[in-house]
Amino acid sequence: MPTDDHPPPTSLDPEDWDSFRALGHRLVDSLIDDWRRARDRPTWRPVLDAVRAELADAAAPWHGQGLDAALADFDRLVRPYPTGNTSPRFLGWVHGSGTPQGAYADLLASALNANLGGREHAPNHVERQVIAWFREVFGLPATTSGLLVSGTSMATVLALGAARHRATRGAVAEQGLTNLGACLVGYASAEAHACAAKAFQLLGLGRAALRPVPVDDAFRIRPDRLEAMLADDRAAGLTPFCLVATAGSVNTGAFDDIPALADLAGREGLWLHVDGAFGALVTLTESLRHLARGIERADSLAFDFHKWLHVPYDAGCVLIRDGELHRAAFALPADYLRRETRGLAAGDPWFCDFGIELSRGFRALKVWLAVKEHGLARLGRAIEANCALARHLADRVAATPGLELLAPVSLNIACFRLAPEGLSAEAADRLNADVVADLHESGIAAPSTTRVRGRLAIRVCVCNHRTTAADMDAVLDGVLRLGRERLEARGGGTA
Ligand SMILES: *Cc1c(COP(=O)(O)O)cnc(C)c1O
Predict the structure, then answer these.
(1) Does position 5 have pLDDT exceeding 90, yes or no?
(2) Whose CA is nearest to atom 15 of ligand 1?
(3) Is the pTM of this model over 0.90?
(4) Which residue among 92, 152, 182, 218 is least enclosed by CB atoms within 10 Å?
């Protein structure tokens, strides 16, 4: 019989616990050095060709090289070339910046190696507590159920899956949409994130069944246009079933008028889903929570912990007002998943009844620890500070000749561009895209680009608790200098 001192030769545990302990201490020390220097490194650096080639080698190793050598490869091939979102100058897309404490939480979660698909153990209760906290934060009723998922994209699939379940009185689960002959259509802002269209695609509704509703000057859904579209679709024999409101759009941070859309959804019998990926978290602030008013009336809400709460990737959440319906939409009994009232097989309901995944990691721990460590109010203050920085940048843009602000700053996103006189629209688009790539490659900063009313924008999204006003100034100065250099190289114009 193998004992503690004599593990079987097939055990994958470390052979020498003392050297494993020493390696662990060295590893943590080197991480702490990295974290403390987060500000000193280039925001991003290109992956070297040789590194990319080595990582493209498809020959899987049949013989191991040992942990020390494998970690040395990590230090050489991976560690120098991350996304960059731990840097205070990472300002692209919507990326949370993480925390060192979150890395400890991930280590603890991996060490327990809990499976939160079901059964009776404390990690499930931690996830239930996290869900209950945020149900309360968003003012949703006690009937609300929830699930931690990889992110808002997955949360949207589940939420709209529940909406589809309600619209077909559950028949879709067994029979499928084709057999039902259901022609379900839904509505979202023309500015909505593509995850809603992807969910429509995946749920068998088809992307064309998600109608983009025109927006007003502040990039909010126009309810009058929505009502006209609903009438047209009903006249054509289609069945409108859901409305997706956006709380914080990815392009400009715009909030739809959720109370007005909730009224409309109520009148029209539509499921109201709110995409609040990052924007819903303004609910944690004093000064901005009015933007998210009406979320408490949603049938479902999708949001992320890995963006504006800076929990390490990945962690998002879906909340569904009608918990019974949520469970009915996804539960599927199986002999090998039998529930008991005692022992490890107790703990009903299991999280696997509320989504697609059976095996599930302990994502909840990093959220639970972050909320317990900082408290919601402090996390909210970091959000407020980000929005103040976006306004600071917008003020500077407005005061600088040769720069143009492309959208009002309602949240944490500033879209602007170099607008030198005498350049065609295409040439100006090219210039701004080139300047953003220059900023990336120089390591100065990492904004991203998007299009606002058809024009290419330099998009600065402050979703980063490390960023300061000096970082905003550095981005702006970098844009001006790199733009000037490019224009001088083409031999004309001033930025
Ligand atoms: C990021 C984002 C999503 C997608 O969320 P993931 O967590 O990346 O899946 C959806 N909607 C909005 C508004 C977003 O910003």
Answers:
(1) no
(2) 250
(3) yes
(4) 218
